[in-house]
Amino acid sequence: MNTTLLTPPAAPAQYFQKGLGLKALAQDLLERDYHSHVVDYLRAHNFMLQIAGMEIHLAQEFGFCYGVDRAVEYAYQARSKFPERRIFLTGEIIHNPHVNARMLEMGIGFLSGEYKNGIGIESLKPEDVVILPAFGVTVAEFKQLAEAGCVLVDTTCGSVLNVWKRVEQYAREGFTSVIHGKYHHEETKATSSQAMKYPHGHYLIVRNMEETAALCDFIVGQSSREKIMQRFVNAISAGFDPDLHLQKIGVANQTTMLSSESLAIAGRLKKAMLEKHGATGVATNFRTFDTICSATQDRQDAIIKMLTANQLDVMIVIGGYNSSNTTHLAALASQYTKTYHIDDPRCMINPEFIRHKPYGQTEQVETHDWLPAGMVKIGLTAGASTPNNKIGEAIACLARLREHDVNEWLKV
Q1: pLDDT given for residue 118 in this prediction
Q2: Where are the beta strands (DSSP E) in 312-352?
Q3: Mean pLDDT of the chain
Q4: Which domains, ranges and CATH numbers included, belong to the chain?
């Protein structure tokens, strides 16, 4: 087995991975843009507020995680350090429309995605500054950026880097990475590219337990090569051959997936490999590690704790519709009570109408009679890419629906 690392990307001319020396300034700006006195009040009062016939409960872990906070902070530092230079993000810095809109207001452009405005990587100049998002970028993108000679500010989350190390190790030792994730998600694209650093590195991406079951059927000889190639056509490495590349597998996952599902997928794959190789052979042909990030796990645990401790009538989950961790919080909550995933507090139009995106659906919908009359218990949480000011705005909006001003109520 040839485990030689393919030619690594050239080192960038200027590369910032641990900040740009302007942390205090950036923190002041972040406080200005994203702080919420309303959220502070709930933190200080057992994460609960009673107002206008409503009992509002806030999950004890919510909103910006360390990795997201760091990524946004580095963007603010970059803008302050290079006030006269063109600055770009490779794509969305995080999956939150308000934060991405703020980047545009700060004069930070986007090289791809819905916020792009004409300029791509091919148009970069050495004096330009490029920010790599919390999800990271693919090996090929990093190489292209380094060769352009521009300044790179790398905000890739440490939890993502840990998964990359695991996938690279699998490839180096001859294992195919089976990644629980969404093949179109930026993080999973970046992670899967790590497997391709080695000549014999390969990957396959499974979205859920249904796809895992189909893969396991092939592993134990109950499905055909053609079915696997057809089902995973968009989720496998170039040159993938299931007959060869599913002999030895290592499991990893997109860090923001549902933890319980990732663990179940790993267990199902291990069972299939045990059936194929026996108790002795599975030890040398199968590997797995839980690579869900702690912040994702904490937010999932917190919402379950809140839902099981309180009989909530309604659950509101705030965050971008393309935010994986937010979507999974909504999925968890929907198992317990009526749940609405909104991307902005303004989606709560009035007590009769709310715009939201149901879990598993692709489009936003409008639901009638969503807020019960009389005394109501409402749960609230936010994905790891949602800033505190949006959480505070949601609480203020709920109060307004009952004709109260939360700021007057709290005297803030």
Answers
A1: 86
A2: 314-318, 338-342
A3: 94
A4: 35-65+295-410 (3.40.1010.20), 66-156 (3.40.50.11270), 159-292 (3.40.1010.20)
Count Cα neighbours of 136 within 13 Å in the Cβ-side half-sphere: 23
Query: From CA 18, how far away is CA 372, in angstroms rounded?
Result: 48
Q: What's the confidence (pLDDT) of residue 290?
A: 79
| Model pTM above 0.85 | yes
Residue-wise pLDDT for 245-268, tens only, equals: 999 999 999 998 988 899 999 999
Instruction: Return the pLDDT at 3.
Output: 66
Contacts 24+ apart (CB under 8 A), 353-360: 357/321, 359/327, 359/330, 359/331, 359/334, 360/331
CA distance 141 to 39: 38
Of 61, 92, 187, 261, which residue is the catalytic one? 187
Positive or negative, the CA dihedral 195, 199, 205, 209 is: negative
Neighbours of 55 (CB within 10 A): 16
Cα angle 27, 30, 36; round to 5: 120
3-state DSSP helix/strand/coil percent for the chain, to nearest 5?
45, 15, 40
Has 187 been annotated as catalytic? yes
Percentage, residues of the chain above pLDDT 90: 90
Q: Is the pLDDT of residue 10 over 70?
A: no
pLDDT, tens only, 295-307: 889 999 999 999 9
